[in-house]
Predict the 3D structure of the following.
Amino acid sequence: MLAAERYEQIVQLVNERGSIRVTELSELCRVTEETIRRDLDRLEQEGRLRRSHGGAMSVRETQPEVPFAEREVTFAAQKRRIAAEAARRVQPRERILLDASSTAWYMARELPDMPLTVLTNSAKVALELASKEQIQVISTGGQLSRGSLSYVGPSAERSLEEYHVDKAFLSCKGLHAERGLSESNELQARVKGQMLRMADEVFLLADASKLGLQSFTRFGSLSQVGALITDDRITPESAAALREAGLDVVVV
């Protein structure tokens, strides 16, 4: 393979996956890791990707994230009801995961101060729980996404690989009975895809405005979710379709 062909293959792989490790590229391109590192340096200088610790990340434009301050007040009453119901599903001494959604932040506010371990990639959730002395908070770390105040990227993904939780509480930008779960941002989607795989039970917290939608990047299927907690704006047809797909639909 010529060097120019290898550069194109590397950029294509990085854009397809969002991020990739040097070791993977070395195996896929059948060259040494040192060669891959030189290739990545050159491609970064050309603005075709961005170097990260141990690999590279895509610079391809994705749909921008809605700022947290805006999401916090959108359908706030519905999100608070969903969060309160989700908090009732948590028992003392459990290990749970909260994502960086505004609904998860509302849930963090609802959680009583009891013996509990909470893993999160949300700076807002971690700060909210800081005053609850019995709750142990573990943050993923990673690249800070300023819009969502969340940690994303390869470091966040690798951190999640080290843990297993009893229950995960996640949200999404789109929930479709046939096309599954989706996010507007590729980095967020990769983190949430990892979260789906690390819990005994997964609860999806999604207000009715997200139902029937498919956003930019798919990150999971309904078969990976145990229950959806949503609000009473859900239509009977939508609820029936989701239940037929195997989802336990809880309406608040």
Summary: DSSP finds ten helices and 15 strands in the chain.
